[in-house]
Batch of 2 targets.
Target 1
Amino acid sequence: MEKQIVLLPGDGIGSEVIQSAKQVLDAITERFNHTFTYHTHDIGGVAIDQHGTPLPQDTVRACEQADAVLLGAVGGPKWDQNPSHLRPEKGLLGIRKSLGLFANLRPIKGFPQLLHSSPLKHEVVDGSDLLIVRELTGGLYFGKPSERSHDGNSVVDTLAYERSEIERIVDNAFKSAQLRRKHLTSVDKANVLESSKLWREVVEEKKADYPDVTVEHQLVDAAAMKLITAPTDFDVIVTENMFGDILSDEASVLTGSLGMLPSASLRDDGVGLYEPVHGSAPDIAGKGVANPLAMILSTAMMLRHSFHLEKEANIVEEAVQQVLQDGYHTGDLDVKNGQLVGTKEMTRRVLEHVTSQDATNSIMTCYA
Ligand SMILES: NC(=O)c1ccc[n+]([C@@H]2O[C@H](COP(=O)([O-])OP(=O)(O)OC[C@H]3O[C@@H](n4cnc5c(N)ncnc54)[C@H](O)[C@@H]3O)[C@@H](O)[C@H]2O)c1
Ligand SMILES: CC(C)[C@H](C(=O)O)[C@@H](O)C(=O)O
Ligand SMILES: [Mg+2]
């Protein structure tokens, strides 16, 4: 199989973990005789420094022409005081929007080997396996107006949704639920927000099209509490952009670390951008200690969702599981009697399994 892949390392640990992803892909191409061609482009803070903009046209064009995009992370203190249009995060939002990647899948699976890494009780975390389907191109992040008054004392952000935008993400979540345990929790703030009332209305209307899926509505404040007190009650969560952002970082606690959470940002034709849920982690950037597993698991999602290489995706996920089984962990994970390793050594351990083992089951099932 021949594929064109754009790599967007970005900032901080982004450039460290994307190296791990590339090495894993190299091992896969060698083993299965695929030809993946890489095109590296700037985004975020490095793009501001190099080109004066967080999202150069050249980067957008390359992503539009690619079969898939892998992104590390953007942002960092160096650019925190920049005006809004010159913030690294604008580059990330811009590429999601310009590629039309409205469906962000964030699978959260507690690996059994990491049960002790979570600050939550084992019996609460054990068996957690949920998928957050986050709407990614609407809501507060993109609503207009979003500005500050001339005197600096008034601000406005707008939470706007079209019915069609809600319909397509809700359809996507119902379909994911059909391929999993067939339970959908729609999270909103319908006791206060107009946007949430329409959201709930759409979910209620769509229910009839998916009679095999049970549906529940939860208010976001209660959902935030239940996510860490009864995580195994959840199968698929569908929610708007900002609620999904917050809940997914919270859910990472179930897995032991934010460094374990992969994601896929998709549109309906399978084009996708794959990135870890975590950010550029300025506190550990450049030290060689970042956990590369979220990025590696995102690469597995790319193999599955954009290239339909199910076996290869399973092998990568199984390799991650195996490495954890062997007791290797980076500093963000607390593993009893384990062996602490850095980014490169962790990646090397994953590669050993990618080149040698076979696997048949998906560990991070989202949908087929
Ligand atoms: N997708 C993205 O590019 C993305 C996502 C979130 C935040 N950000 C940006 O990243 C910058 C830093 O944000 P933040 O500190 O709030 O969030 P962060 O996710 O970068 O870090 C939060 C904490 O988790 C740790 N952490 C995150 N990923 C890790 C990994 N792979 N291995 C080990 N530890 C890891 C960090 O060290 C830090 O203590 C900000 O500029 C923010 O806007 C970018
Ligand atoms: C960096 C930021 C714009 C981004 C978001 O809020 O979407 C990040 O937190 C994420 O979760 O991907
Ligand atoms: Mg986030």
Note: Residues 50 and 283 are 23 Å apart (CA to CA).
Target 2
Amino acid sequence: MKQPQPGKQPVAELTDVTRTYKMGDEFVKALDTFTFTFNSGEYWAIMGSSGSGKSTLLNLLGCIDRPTSGSYRIRGREVSSMDDDTLSTFRGKELGFIFQSYNLLPQLDVLENILMPVMYQDEYPDGIEERALRLAERVGLGGRLHHKPMQLSGGQQQRVAIARSLINDPALLLADEATGNLDSKTADEILELFDELHDEGTTILLVTHEQDVGERAENILRLKDGLIESVHRGQRGRSGATQAFEASHSSVAPHAGDAEAEVVTFTSSEPGRSDADGGGEA
Ligand SMILES: Nc1ncnc2c1ncn2[C@@H]1O[C@H](COP(=O)(O)OP(=O)(O)OP(=O)(O)O)[C@@H](O)[C@H]1O
């Protein structure tokens, strides 16, 4: 399991990223010259109303899609120009995914589902089965190793998906409405698991439209019309206490390690502006 890093490092750096979709003769800028850095060990909720660009951003972060223009680097490696095969291998090693609908393979048991990301490799990495066992224990499923997904509750299936997402010790954990299919008690248990993973140093980016889920994260990045609307940084979550202050959009963006919670709001009167320092070097 990961240990907390002594210093934060840039993990996902997006610079002037634009994603444009073509709809007939029209072009839709789903993400507009977006510049942001997510650092190691950070836990971000990505929020915003429908159509604000959350899925577009998550697809880019997850290397499922490519920017129309701009640069995206993961742990310093430019991914936007990788060929498809290199990108696919890189994605499998560096990124973990958690989906609203779990996306487990029904014919595989818990342990096999956790091992799924490495199953298609020529040979198993050393110690990977032991790691899968440890992860199953870690998410509370040590007693269910040979259950099939349909023999598990929704919360247990999501725990399998979380263990699966961690099998390759990814740089980044990307969660898309991870608690959307769960009742509030089970959702809370999954969010507690995220809290624990965050405490252990995992970098988590979670897309949600649920305010209470977003507020469990350490920080909130809010999008509007493909631009950054606000950056809310600070110790939130379990304490629930946020000593926020509003800063004008022209303020110097916040830096990692600042003790107090901060909000930086970007006004829509500044068209095209979609940049903020996610905490590290800009
Ligand atoms: N494949 C596509 N083709 C054309 N336009 C698209 C496509 N995907 C997204 N868009 C447009 O890009 C914008 C951002 O969409 P996106 O799905 O990223 O928003 P979202 O914040 O995830 O919304 P929701 O919360 O409803 O899922 C929207 O205006 C949407 O209509």
Note: The pocket of adenosine-5'-triphosphate is lined by residues 21, 23, 28, 30, 48, 50-56, 209 (CB under 6 Å).
